[in-house]
Amino acid sequence: MQSFHVSERPYVTVENVRFDPPLDQNHTPAIVKLDWHNAGRTPTLKLTYQIRLFIDDKETVDTPSDFSSEVTIASDRSVGASFSIWIRGPGDYEGIVDGTRKLSIKGSLKYSDIFKESHLTTLCAVYDSKVNKAWVFCPGNDVK
To answer: Distance between CA 82 and CA 32 in Å, rounded?
Structure first.
């Protein structure tokens, strides 16, 4: 029975992280959008997520936190989510844009399946302003 659950359960991955609009002007707040994909054979139920924001590996006080609204993702489908971040420290915006300061997010997605089992996906991404002006996933993003 357990192997059936494993083969049929939802597997949520983070496909994309981006600024929208791009971080080329000092937007207050900046909007970060995420795309999640359910690669499993059954729906993702009651997905909630937590996101923390770091500048130079120090968590900011204006960090988005728990997002308790529950999301459902059908099998082999994607959904998007967004949250606002405030980059307010002296020189933080300029440092992030010119690459002298590191902006990163860490988070987790918690969800359940039709078998009433809980699952977790971890997320870590760093904004690369020098090469791509895009978010790059850290090693260790994981579906559990």
So the answer is: 6
CA atoms in the 13 A half-sphere facing the CB of 87: 23
Mean pLDDT in consecutive groups of 10 residues from the start of the chain, 144 residues:
81 93 78 94 95 92 73 95 87 91 94 95 93 88 71
Backbone dihedral region for residue 68 (phi beyond 0: left; psi -120 to 50: alpha; all else: beta): alpha
**Report field, pTM of the whole predicted structure over 0.90:** no
SS3 per-residue string spanning 62-112: CCCCEEEEEEEECCCEEEEEEEEECCCCCCHHHHHHHCCCCEEEEEEEEEE
Q: Collect contacts of 73-77 with beta carbons under 8 A, ≥24 apart.
A: 73/10, 73/12, 73/36, 73/37, 73/38, 73/43, 73/44, 73/47, 74/38, 74/43, 75/10, 75/38, 75/40, 75/41, 75/42, 75/43, 76/38, 76/39, 77/37, 77/38
CA dihedral 26, 62, 57, 104 (to 10 degrees): -60
Q: Give all domains of the chain, ordered by start, each with its CATH number.
A: 2-138 (2.60.40.10)
